[in-house]
């Protein structure tokens, strides 16, 4: 067997594989001999079928199969030994009318080669790294939500601004009949809220659905109708009040602290605020890191310049896609995926240049931490190592889940690399202002 390569340019090559008869003949003869021992052909005893008949019936199929196996193994070995960084998979050049009676065969494969390039993390313009803090306003609002959640309902005679009102939306023609509990701050307009102030149990309030809530999703849930029906709905509905309550805030005492965090973990309002701030900012860090990852990724894709073997990759996508594509569809598919492919190459280069690795132990430790957090949400605060190991083993037995965790860890390591080496400027702001700046005022 002989394998040669012709580099057409820096990104494209053709590999030629010459297979001689001696490369496959012994293997083919052995397989046919084994067939002869077991072949069941009418008129002949098992094991006594003439070899000529076996070859005539099975010879070409065995030959084709063995040549293809030999070809694939040889090609894979060659790519490994030559340390060729290929994109996609080798594409066989079309060959018409192969003479399988010949004493040797030649096959050619097109290769798309990965480009050589350098990744520069130090951008000229600094990339913003947000440090999101839980400000006093957010902490106070969270404390009030907790007090309401753990507070008690007190019945009222009439509706006030802070009442919780239970009632039923109805419209007989539209077949609407849904009981809900609401607060007046959920309505879009102040005029709607004013209709409720002073109302009593049994009163019926007529409301227009158009502009009743900020968006159609809230209307959909309030009336218990599907999304398409809620969109742009402009009818009148009746709201019959059946219950009026006021929620008394729970006292900020040790009993509440123990319910929230476990006995003795928090013993004062000051400690409560500190705990809420700590927990909130842990969540904010994840959002900040994800934003940083997205921004650095965008910078790297836009500013790391290299060419790709686009024509080869288009043909490869057309040949290997699950669904049949013509040349134009394959071109569109390549153009849609080019940015993603560029980042995969950039990420791979960063991982290689900075020796970023994720071990089996890393994946197991991360899985155990995730499981501990989930168990804590259900009140299991101190699971044993044995219990965690057992659950982690079951989780990681799912290859898809193990791959997902590995990718998470790679992303975390890349974020730490960016924090260390990229040109960043830290901007501290509240979560409310972060949302306004990054996502717009929603």
TrEMBL record:
It catalyses: [protein]-peptidylproline (omega=180) = [protein]-peptidylproline (omega=0). GO terms for cellular component: cytoplasm. GO terms for biological process: 'de novo' cotranslational protein folding; protein transport; protein unfolding. It comes from the Bacteria. Its main location: cytoplasm. It is an enzyme of class 5 (isomerase). Pfam families: Trigger_C, Trigger_N. Its EC number is 5.2.1.8. GO terms for molecular function: peptidyl-prolyl cis-trans isomerase activity; protein folding chaperone; ribosome binding. It is found in: Cytoplasm. Keywords: Chaperone, Isomerase, Rotamase. InterPro entries: Trig_fac, Trigger_fac_C, Trigger_fac_C_sf, Trigger_fac_ribosome-bd_bac, Trigger_fac_ribosome-bd_sf, Trigger_fact/SurA_dom_sf. Residues 1-146 form the Trigger factor ribosome-binding bacterial domain. Residues 268-396 form the Trigger factor C-terminal domain. Belongs to the FKBP-type PPIase family. Tig subfamily. PANTHER family: TRIGGER FACTOR CHAPERONE AND PEPTIDYL-PROLYL CIS/TRANS ISOMERASE, TRIGGER FACTOR-LIKE PROTEIN TIG, CHLOROPLASTIC. This is Trigger factor.
